[in-house]
Amino acid sequence: MLRMIRRSEIDLAIWRRELPAALSSWLDAWPVGEWPNLRDVLTPAEIARTLRRHFDGAGIEHCDGRAMLIDDVTQLATLYAHALRLTHVQLRLEGYFTRTNERVPSTVSEPPASAAPYEGASISAP
To answer: Domain boundaries in the chain?
Structure first.
């Protein structure tokens, strides 16, 4: 599915997927507004290490939910980078909520022009 994004006639791809129940429950337990936001430009090889450091700095204890999130984000960003033949992705983690405190799905988009000089893309989660 992600490889179709490279086709010139494709402008947008929406990928709906269910998170594993345990990961979804762990994320839902976070208080609204207390998610430790992160925005960084990384190679796929740097993502897991960067997420671990960021979560350590934010005081998020090591647990199965944290490990699942790190694995999920790393896999998604790596798939995206490989599908689009990118060397870097702009990783953005923010808590997005509706007025009823429901999570809004993750999105993948092109980076701002200021993200040059490398070719990259953006993936937002959770």
So the answer is: 37-125
DSSP codes, 64-113: HHHHHHHHHHHHHHHHHHHHTT-SEEEEEE---B-TTSPBPPP-EEPPPG
Longest dimension (CA), the chain: 44
Which is nearest to 120 in space by CA: 40, 48, 52?
Answer: 40
Question: Are the CB atoms for 124 and 67 separated by under 8 Å?
Answer: no
User: For 19-66, what is each residue's pLDDT tens digit?
Assistant: 888 988 888 887 767 778 888 899 999 999 999 999 999 888 899 999
